[in-house]
Amino acid sequence: MDPKKTKDRPFYELPENVQASSRIIQDARSSLRTVVTKRPFTPRDEKRTLFPASTARNPESRPASAFSLNSRHFDGSDSRPVSGTKLSPLDHTPRAPTAAEIETAILAPKPPADPNRPLSRKGSRQKLYNATSVDGGGENVSSIRPRSGSTDGRLMHESSSPDREVPRRVSSGPKERTLPTEERGMADGKEAAPRVSSSMGVSSPPRTGGSHDGEQRVGSGSSRKSSSAGKTRSGSAGKRDSFDVGDDNLYTDKVAPVIDEMSALGKNRDNEKLGELAEDLYIVLDTNKKLTKSYKQRSSILKAIFKLLDVEEPRVMLKLARLILAFKVGGNNLLNVCKLVFKVSRNEKNDQEFLEGNVLDLLIETIRTTDHVASCEALIYCVGAIKFLTGNPTILRRLAKKECIETLAGLLHNIEKTNRDNGRVSDQFGHILVQLCAALRNLADVGSGRERFLQTGVIESLSHLLDAYPNDCDLVLYISRIFSKVTLHTDCCTVLANQHSCYKSFIHLLNRHVNKEDVVVRVCFVLGNITAKNDDARKRLFQEPNAMSTLLSVLKTFHNMESQKRSKSDNVTSNGRHTSSDGDGAINTVDDVLIKVVRVIANLSINDSVGPVIASHVECVQLLLSILDSKDIGSSEELILNTVATINNLSYYTTKTSAITAHQNTVAQVLLKLVMTDNMEAMLEASRVFGNLTRQRTVRDLLSKQKVDEIMITLLDSGNRELVFIACGVLINFMADEDKRPLLKKEGGIKKLTEVLRDFGREDWQLGSVVCKVLCNYSTKITSTNSCFGEAEAQDLIDVLVEYLDKETALEASLRDEVDEDLKDYLCETWEADFCPVASQLLKRIETYQSSFEPLEAPG
């Protein structure tokens, strides 16, 4: 190797097999960095409503947030336990029979089940036909022909005289004839129950399924009453409907008096007294374990409670609703009681009432046990009430302890499974999911919320919902709010990043909802979070079709939107800060979107395969420069800092196609205004970019004319270690040019660099290495140490280098107060690998050219 060429080559131009000093920008702690930003601001809802004020839902298809509700809306017939059997509706519309058809039906004899059996028997009583038995009991009511001689054609009922023969069942065989009641009782070895008088009227037709555990069956407009003696109606049914004397005594002695007293209060009732009685009633029933579907007095109690629901006092309403929920009603009553609770929960002044008793447990149990298909609307209001209540910090913590997250996660999984099984999504389920996700958004703030989300698979399911309901703006907004919270943590980011479909969903949402700031800002914030902590996520997102074009489209859309706002003087405040779309001058939502999108691009560019591609994207670089050129550091500090950080990442890649390199002078000119400000962060970010750009001679010449090299020397006194580090990196490149070296000595840079080495070297050997590299490049053509550095400066520098190159002396002070073993290893490694090689070379050069004689000038 030619010694002359070796001597004249700048320090950073080392052989290819040796790491060049210019690569300190790559190896430095801050060369390629992820960008940090604040979570999007979420204003507190002024009113508790079922859907957001900005909802795009059709008012005709969505459930109402406000409604009237009173006792008339509750159905007494639904208060009985249901059989669980659903009957299909008839396909035809029934019509009233004509008089001729009635007369024909009455006069015509019904053929027997057995064709060989004669139509009539000698001596038989009047023929009965179409005899039925309701619910398998002993109360048989038959339709018979008119007696001989009647001509009016009307249906009549046979009088129930004691000696009347009980008609046998239709189509029964000879051995299946029904015995008279007295005979049947004797045959069974039991006392016969009294025959029910026909004055009771015609019973309801038979129902599918029997009553539950002997409970009374209450019909609409008629009722089936048990006998006064409490005897059974039939053998097998009697065992199921056996009379419980204990139940009767409880109802008579404790329950009925309370109900009577509650009902006797009248319209002008004492609400305080009514609330106390409702509490007493609940305690009695709960203590005796009668708050079940099987309690035979359940229907009577519920009917009485329903009649009291015209009360307007929230405390009383909630206590009555508590009783109804505890009895596990269904159908229309479940819907209305959920509406009732929803109505009370809408006013945050009533929150304290939910902290009393166990109403929260009942709401969670209702969500857990209710069929989301059959009772979809009821769940909308029930989960909606939970959503409101999670806005109260005290209730929020209590709900979390009661496994509310697990319950909502179960409902979420069930809905997801139903949609998957049906092969389509249900809009009605979407109404539930909006309430559910809004509640989960609040529950995510609980201390254990994140861990429970991970344990129950909530994050994965929410990711699937984004793909299933991309058009539901409300649902998308709440899911993005949840993700913006949980992805602040690495474990949640990892789970979401592993959902490969989420990248496609996020890009699709940005395209579809590009004009919705609240959605876009959160989706971009989430993308920024997962790409900040996962290099694989960077590649997956960038490789998603149209990902980069979508991000740039969002960036361009909101940048143009900001330009249009700026052109309207009425939207600009006196300090130049633009008002937000929601009228809150403290929040610039357009700037916030730009910040989040720029951050995603900055994080993507860290990947060594993605970064060069983005750096070559001319439109991307032009948009970033346009943002810097149009913004002011005083009003848009975070946006400018993030944009400069993104340009810094892109400027690291010096490929032939780099748009940064192609526009390097323009970039340098735009950044100059930041170096001139008194904003330390702005100076630091701009200096980082200069550290990359000054690798080019044309940029160094441009910046030198603007006295940037002089500014970098001044920054050595800043006391900010990171800023000093970056300033040294820029000076390394400036010292490559011989014509720019004298400025370092002229501005006192030698002394400043020596002081930096003395002040920070023991704590930061990497910084000490950078200082030595500046001085090595500066002294490339040294002939005399004293003339190059100055006599006093040279001696101070020698003393520091000698001390720091002694391992025992240097590291003893570095490690004395350090207790972290990993950090001790790091300090030893950087001292040996980074500092010693450069410091040794510099010390050798200084000592080689140190002499008391000044060199003679060459003869002219």
What does this 3D model show about the protein?
Helix content is about 55%, strand content about 0%. The protein has about 850 residues and is mainly α. Among the domains are: about 20-35 and about 490-660, no CATH class; about 740-860, no CATH class. The protein has a two-stranded antiparallel sheet. Strand 1 (about 130-135) and strand 2 (about 140) form a beta hairpin. Helix 12 runs parallel beside helix 15, helix 18 (about 475-485) packs parallel to helix 21 (about 515-535) and helix 21 crosses helix 22. The two termini are about 30 Å apart.
Could you outline the blueprint of secondary structure elements for this entry?
Blueprint: H1 3-8, H2 24-27, H3 99-107, E1 132-133, E2 140-141, H4 181-187, H5 235-240, H6 245-263, H7 271-287, H8 298-306, H9 314-326, H10 331-345, H11 359-369, H12 376-389, H13 393-401, H14 404-422, H15 427-443, H16 449-456, H17 458-468, H18 473-486, H19 490-497, H20 501-512, H21 517-533, H22 535-543, H23 547-566, H24 589-604, H25 611-615, H26 618-630, H27 637-651, H28 659-662, H29 664-675, H30 680-693, H31 697-705, H32 708-715, H33 721-734, H34 742-746, H35 749-760, H36 765-778, H37 785-789, H38 791-804, H39 807-815, H40 821-848
Antiparallel strand pairs: 1-2
Helix pairs in contact: 6-7, 7-9, 9-10, 9-11, 10-12, 11-12, 11-14, 12-15, 14-15, 14-16, 14-17, 15-18, 17-18, 17-20, 18-21, 19-21, 20-21, 20-23, 21-22, 21-24, 23-24, 23-26, 24-27, 26-27, 27-30, 29-30, 29-31, 30-33, 32-33, 33-36, 35-36, 35-38, 36-40, 38-40
